[in-house]
Amino acid sequence: MSALRLEGVSKSFGGLRAVSDITLSTPVGKITGLIGPNGAGKTTVINLITGTLSLTDGRVCLGDSDLTTAEPDAIARHGISRTFQNIRLLAEATVLDNVMIGFHRHEKASFVSGLLGLGAARRETADIRAKSAELLQRFGLLRYADMPAGNLSYGHQRRVEMARAVATDPKILLLDEPVAGMNDVEAGELGDLYQELAASGIGLLMIEHNVRFVTRMCEHVYVMASGRMISEGRPGAVMQDPKVVAAYLGDKHAQG
Ligand SMILES: Nc1ncnc2c1ncn2[C@@H]1O[C@H](COP(=O)(O)OP(=O)(O)OP(=O)(O)O)[C@@H](O)[C@H]1O
Ligand SMILES: [Mg+2]
In the sheet that 57-62 helps form, which strands lie side by side, from edge to edge? Predict the structure, then answer.
């Protein structure tokens, strides 16, 4: 099993201990929640997993592979993919091109044929184009394929971002507030997609402030506050944990 595991992970920025001794695991085939008030350290945890930030302490493992000191490229090749809290698409590029970028790391012919000017790269591009179109179909985006991604609604841009992340054929998918700013219908539709992805054998780790959504999607939830893990368990139980209630007191997202 290629579960993602964090053991005693810490990160300091100068004097600020943004993440302190975090231990968690993300099994494949499930959606695991990571919640907590603003500034709790949730996005920093994702940046530590993907190698965007280096750890101050602790270990990150995927199955038998220790990724603690691996470079972002290597971590991505091991099958860890993410979406961003603030959507990052190429706004001017078409929806199809944005998704094709996700397939890039699987291109095999590009080095050699790029040098020799052979047809293999062209064939591979055609292949990637077809696979990308398939993904667009699956994500209900095919009719937008030739539109600039920046022209799409917020909810659809989120879908494009998801399609790009799934194009990398991930084992683990890290979602940073994937339904923020969406209405319940849009969120519900994306939620169905996440459940399909989990059922297909991917492990999802989802940061989300919308407690209703987390409760519906996750069997297991971790709660961070001020860089520390303050609670974990079933969503229903965790939300009644006095430590969690206290951490959320006064936080506008608490009713989510
Ligand atoms: N690159 C950085 N340099 C310095 N401080 C940082 C950096 N990244 C994050 N921090 C700090 O670390 C703390 C945790 O931030 P983080 O973005 O991980 O929180 P979060 O739980 O994702 O919050 P939110 O719910 O608002 O997205 C904050 O105090 C933040 O200012
Ligand atoms: Mg964040």
Answer: 16-26, 4-13, 57-62, 65-66
